[in-house]
Every structure is written in structure tokens, then in C-alpha cells.
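User: Fold this; C-alpha cells only.

Assistant: Input:
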Amino acid sequence: MVVTSMIVGQVLNNLFPVLMKEYNNPSLFRPWSDPLMSLFFLYPFILAIILSIVWEKTNKLFSGNTPTEKSFKFALSYWVVANITGMLISYSTFPVSFLMIVSWSISSLFTVMAGAYVIVRMSK
């Protein structure tokens, strides 16, 4: 999930260079030297644990002929519930552009899809 997030982030930053200006805004984010910023790197691991727990409790709800189909349905369901609501609150409370919110949403979707695929494959 970390690798997927890094790849999608690089692609989006290359497609939309204006995003880097927002990321470098010192009044928006904590500086990288702040010890709390290390939690940023734990996010994919925490998300993987949460996805595993949610999958374990709900996997019977997701039908599909292939692991890809099941993982897509699971990831999309999780993403709609967690990401859409989270991005709505982020957009309403942080001084970031709509493009930044969209890029976070896209990155999150791909990250969750990668994690869900691994979880579904491992649960067989």
C-alpha cells in the first residue's frame, strides 16, 4: 500500500505540478522535522490493519467470481464510506484546493484497492 500510494502520488504531482506548491505551504502542514509527522508514514500500515479487520467481519457480504472482483467491491465500499466523508470534512476545514482533495481521493482509492486485493488473495 505504501508503494502504491507513493507511485500514485508521484503521477498526480507530475500531472498537476501546482499540487507541490500546496504541499510546500508551511502554514498548512506541520514541518517534516516535527516528530508527529512520522505518523504520516504509519498511515498505510494502520489502514492495512483496519482493512484486514473490516474484511474479516464483512467478507461474506462481497460476492464475486474472482479475487479482483471481490476486492474491487470491498475497496470501493470502504472508500466511499471512509474517504468521501473524510475528504468532505477535509475540504471544509483545511485551506486546500479542490484539486488537492481530488488527488487525495484518487490516491486513497488506488491504495485501498491494492490493500484490498492483497487481503482478499491472502484470505483464500
